[in-house]
Amino acid sequence: MVRSSGNSLTVRLIASDLDGTLFGPDHRLSQRTIAAVRAAHAAGISVIAATGRSTISAAPRVRPAGVIATAVCSNGSLIHDVATDVTLRRFAIEPAMVDRLFATLASLDSGFACCWETDHGNGWDDAFADIAALHEDLGGQRTLDRRPIASDQTTKVMVRHPDITEVELRAHLVPLLVDPLTVSTSGVKFVEITGTGVDKSTAIAHLCQQWSIRPSEVVAFGDNHNDAAMLAWAGHGVAMGNAAQSAVDAADEVIGTNVDDAVAVWIERLLQDSTS
Question: For the segment 227-239, what is each residue's pLDDT rounded down to a tens digit?
């Protein structure tokens, strides 16, 4: 735990988005960021990742820090132990809601294509294959050759349309869905759908309850629409200088960009202020 006299913060947990936030433009941790995260850990602050990425790509990319033991993945649908590579908790979409989602999309427009993450593997429609082949979380490896069924724990469904951008698609879809599923965007060419009320803050709140950490003791960093709920929920939400407007609107503070290691700079200043 660190108390900062400069801004009256008591920080026990830092939760950070990865791409566009903790990662540099190369989608990796810089040496400065690794050093800052390790210094925060040494000072008694837990640091976790909170990302739209799946466990497949998130865990390997945060391991170089050595002290990020937990990753909230798939926009809050999963809590993953980085060291053991074991998923500890899933906040799955109810199976009936998954069925209604696919039925609704089919009834609306034949142009919709989907990809899905489940505890039994990942799969996608043929019209999603071009994205799947390039997407790091999928790597072109279709491990589930069917759509989800009732026995699957479906944690995220990704939806694209050839004629609608992801931001427009979210606004288009939300009022048409039968169930109040969570629909978010993260700067990729599709929208990401998770369970009702499931976002990054859901999983972080679950961890905080386990760890006896108050929301007021959490600092969260993010840059996109899928970070907005987390930034609003945390005691102190920090948006990047390169953030989408929805993230800026939800935050308490806006800092520099990921190009400039702005999260590392913020942590360094916090630790310096706590000792001054």
Answer: 999 999 999 999 9
